[in-house]
Amino acid sequence: MRDNAKYQGIFPAFYACYAEDGSISPERVRAFTEYLIGKGVTGLYVGGSSGECIYHSVEERKLVLENVMAAARDKIVIIAHVACNNTRDSMELAAHAESLGVDAIAAIPPIYFKLPPHAIAKYWNDISSAAPHTDFVIYNIPQLAGVALSSSLLREMLKNPNVIGVKNSSMPVQDIEMWRDEGAIVFNGPDEQLLSGLCAGAIGGIGGTYAVMPELYLAIYSLTQKGEIAKAREIQDACCQIIYKLCSGTGNMYAMIKETLRNMGAPDIGGVREPLYNLAEGDKTICSACAKQIKELIKTYA
Fold first, then answer.
1. What is the pTM of this model?
2. Which CATH number covers residue 208?
3. Which of 151, 165, 228, 300 is most buried, judging by how many CB atoms fall within 10 Å of its CB?
4. How far is Cα 178 from Cα 155, in angstroms, rounded to an integer?
């Protein structure tokens, strides 16, 4: 019997952790994993957009997941994003993830070439077949993948007994209601609407800014479960303001987040990989202000 209850809660999207020379740092991966476990998160989403997956080789992605699992095994739930832009590499990562004992794998649709639904379904089912004993989560992020999940495609995928649901990063909250009505569990994707997504029936959230302020997203989740929506809305509004600040710099948002984490005393996990843009003049001032604001909000709400 499948245990979907373990997916209820807050899953920070794990950030790429680099050494000073720009290579993957196993030590920093483990340190950052332990840091997030200490924050009380439900689990981690490893190897997705926030993990800069499209800029990593297959071997680098394996290295990241191996070190996350070394620190997180039997402590929190791990969902590993395994999609590459070809089926063979994706299946290799899926089999590797299952061998490490992850709780679930996830995959976006193939990007660049626009494929018909039957081809996307085959791609996802082929990936799932490489990890036959592991739950599978569809990652719907049409604004980046270039293709949107449809109800008919979801129904087709739910014929696969391993498919449990959707990480939904489309902006319409209505999509969460639609996927839930099809019988899937749904993770809210857009951080700016975690509260709305939970109210629409999302089982939890997977988010790219969760790891820089997990205490606040955990508070939103807890308050929503208690029906204290007004207070949860206050925190959601505050989180949105921080997100807008993190996006206001010249550097890529994840470079801004990593600098903000350093300001908060979190492990140093390096910068971002080119062509993502690292910090520019003035960005550190914004990051310092974000760190200060997050600390104040944690004192108030968490």
1. 0.97
2. 3.20.20.70
3. 165
4. 11
